[in-house]
Amino acid sequence: MKPHLAPVEVPDPAALGQVQRLCDLAEPYADGPGTDALFAAAMAEANAWHARRSPLFAALLQEPAGTPAPTVGDGVRTPLVPAAFFKRHEVLSIPRDEVFLHLTSSGTTGQKSQMFFDEWTIRSAQRMVARIFDHYGWITPEQPVNYLLYSYEPAPALKLGTSFTDNYLCDFAPARHTTHALRHTGSGHEFDVHGCIAALHRYAEDDVPVRILGFPAFLYFTLERMRAMGLPPLRLPEGSLVVLGGGWKGHADRQIGKDVFYAEVTDRLGIPAERVRDTFGSVEHCVPYIECAQHRLHVPVWSRAAVRDTGTLRPLPYGEKGFLHLVSPYITSVPAQSVLMGDLASLHPGEECPCPLSTDWFTVHGRAGVSRNRSCAVAAAELMKGMS
């Protein structure tokens, strides 16, 4: 069996049987009335699970019902918990001795989301990632690759979700060699742009594909530095892949459009645009959203998305911008099955994307408002200051 596709069992099969069935669906972009009904049943089970175990969520269910997300199902409650809530509060639906993993969403200072996972929750989320990678043919246990990770080099006390995710993605193809862009110095991390450039040149001469993972701003900065140094374009081996995540927070003034960025990757590294994919995710909502070949973030079968008005929080129709609302019953450790993100987004029907997938997709338009909270990407971006 391919890595991380092995069965995982919910904490209580009697109480969470529909959650188990939903998360066991192997086709990541299946849709239709059957999957919609299963999703609604699984959400009802998740709500009951958290209401019995979390005073916070039980209290939310006592409030007058708001307008449910239209994609979730009639009669299914989706009380909104802002992602920022987890920066100030630790809320669990399990005893602390059942916490399997503790991750945070920020750098070494600033407010951090504290998320606690039981084994089911984190293994279930990992299996979702594996199923999407398998869908695209990116699990290659017989094909070694070289990795360039635009993320934090592991350190003993590091609990950042981005570092955990990027290192986990290295399990899908055996590593011949790995380079971390954010090197651990013993007292923090530093961005090693020249080490990245040297690694790319070495990897271009090797005979195995390259996988570039992590923050897009760091990859762009590397390509920018290569151009400034007058270095000729490289041609990385066939089958190379770029999977990015984390956004450009903290360096919005240097952000360029995706089409321009992907064209730059193709020009400087020889990787075709369809093998350059962005992702969206967060430590508060670990369901993976990975671009299709047309660079749309389709919603997988294990979750649903809506967009809510920034003033009234009422659901908005397709195409309008508002707060991104993400829903999934997979999480049993924390009442985060219905999270209102701080991102502005618009939702679109599947048929508006020319790729074969039929599920809804969304576009992220940036963060809403101005916040003192620092995400992983913000903390990482600060390491780039003074480099240009």
TrEMBL record:
Entry's Gene Ontology BP terms: bioluminescence
Keywords: Ligase
Name of this protein: Long-chain-fatty-acid--CoA ligase
Keyword Ligase among record annotations: yes
Organism domain of life: Bacteria
Database matches in Pfam families: LuxE
Domain Acyl-protein synthetase LuxE, chain residue ranges per copy: 78-381
Single GO MF descriptor: long-chain fatty acid--protein ligase activity
Organism classification: Bacteria, Bacillati, Actinomycetota, Actinomycetes, Kitasatosporales
Gene: luxE
Organism of origin: Streptomyces alanosinicus
InterPro entries, per the entry: ANL_N_sf, LuxE
